[in-house]
Amino acid sequence: MLIAIARRLNLLIITLFILCLASYVLAFLFPGDALTNLSGIPALSADQSHQLQLMYALNEGWFSGFWTYLKLTLNGDWGVSLNSQTPIFEDILKLLPASLELSLYAMVISLVVGLPLGVLAGLKHRSYTDMSILSVSLTGFSFPVFWLSLLLILIFSLQLGYLPMSGRISLLFDIPHSTGFILVDILRSEMPVKDAALFDALRHLVLPTLSLSIVTTALVIRLIRRSVVTVYASDFIKAAYTKGLSHSQVFWRHGMKNALLPIMPQLAMQFTVLLTNAMIVEVIFSWPGIGEWLIQAIYQRDFPAIRGGMLAVSAVVVTFTISVELLVRILYPLNKRQFYAQT
Amino acid sequence: MPMLDIKNLTLEIDTPMGWVSALDKVSLSIDTSEIRALVGESGSGKSLIVKSIVGAIPERWRVTADRMNWKGNDLLGMSGNQRRAITRNEISVILQNASAALDPSATLREQIEESIPSYRLTKGWFWQRRQQRLDIAIQELHRVGIRDHNLCLSSYAHQLPEDICQKFSIAMALVSKPKLLIADNPTVGMETTTKVQILKLLTKLNKTQGLSVLFVSHDLLAIAAMANTMTVLYCGQTVESGSIEQVKRRPLHPYTKALLDSAPSFRRDLPPKSPLSCLDGTIPTLQHLPIGCRLGPRCPRAQRECVKMPATRHIHGHSYACHFPLHRDKP
Question: What ipTM was assigned to the predicted interfaces of this complex?
Fold first, then answer.
């Protein structure tokens, strides 16, 4: 077990290291001055330029340059944005929770809806129930996210006027920023109109979460259905029936555990799909998250911000994936055999 | 009255080519404290019979039978709950591929304790019951010859070798004290000494506790050593059945003869270095089943009549299904 954990940690560290390396190299591949791309400060005078060069150790060869960059990155000094001249790291810290919040709620909804439907479809394999769930999921899977969100805005905000079309919360409410998760922030704040603010924030959340979760729900349904079908065709389920266990006993004791654990990493992968889709959705709904910020940075060729955003998003994705994998390894014994077979 | 009485069991499987009957009018009966052997090549549908008896087949396959009675009660007609009660308390099954038949994500202790019926627990409080469950499990494991019970109970199925898994499945099948044990190839791949021990255990249970056994195997020697009666299956059809002595001494169906001849240790008259006999060809696949008697294309005695399924004939408890049986011309 310890070896398995060590391996994963090793993988995590090396991947993050390579990400840092890539982001460092990017600064030299982007058009323009490498020093400006690293620091975000357009060099004005020769003196200032010299000072930056010393700070990034660029004249001491690429190795110590990278080493200095690594130290600066770990210290949270990611340079400043070319456009706004604000520190990138603080920007990311402020914006990333908004994106994570959106993706997290979408993930929860996908699981809550997709899990029972997928299991139902898997148990009723090749029946009309299965076919209809599968076709609904195929339809959901085929919607492009940007089109779906525009359509939702068109119907629910513009035509019917039920829900707000952009932003996280109405401008009337002034929420102090503490965790970055808006619902948590509202609950922790000392405002007099907490309930109204909470309700408003929830109303703002509905459309982005819905448009994000539809695609993921479809994916989750298909994943779970396939896994349930495979498990129910296997010998040990038949053996459990021959022991005389009832359907529900077989389902809860043997079926679910074996169907869900192997696909946990794949389910967790959906989170990364969500994060990608969240970027598109954030732009459409003007959601102040990292995706919108990153896409703005790309539009404005704000290279330090692009570099920082890429590093932050990929670090989150990598860390998340590896921790889920580790968790599954701890919970699911069969994976150990695969582990031993590899070594 | 036989304990398990199956007459004309037909199992149809939905394939892209339409419905194919994987089992075609199989008849089988097991009396109280009888060991019946079910013999046949791989692919002859032995395991399918086992699975249809306990109802562990996909719901979309069609099972029909003229009669499928357990102690006089129709298994196919009864409700799911009644049938489960019977499979839980009176019938136990050892499936082929023991390690695949064990849940990969649960320890063996959880699995064997799950099989212990509640009537074997006499103590009242749950912690006493817990201890008693463990005691019963350990006792059963010792009975099938697993000495290191702690290691076995705390392991997962993939951590143990295949023959331990097999022994464990046998222990798990015996823990509910069944009336009938259906053993699908329980000793396959075991070393000879262990195999003999298992066979001895089954025979002992048969003699002392009146356990009936349906012993599904290829192993003709093991069958000859322990079984009372035997049923020969070819490609989903019952070919011949009768007591071991009858069938061995005087096989009436050409397939039975070929099967017996293919086991050299059965033939005392075989001179050294003589060619071994076997039927040409292989068992047909489900997609290419011949009509009538399915042995037809491989049968040395086949004639035109064989495209019709022969009726089963009975002589002194020995039944066979063949138009041109062996020894028929002799008195």
Answer: 0.77
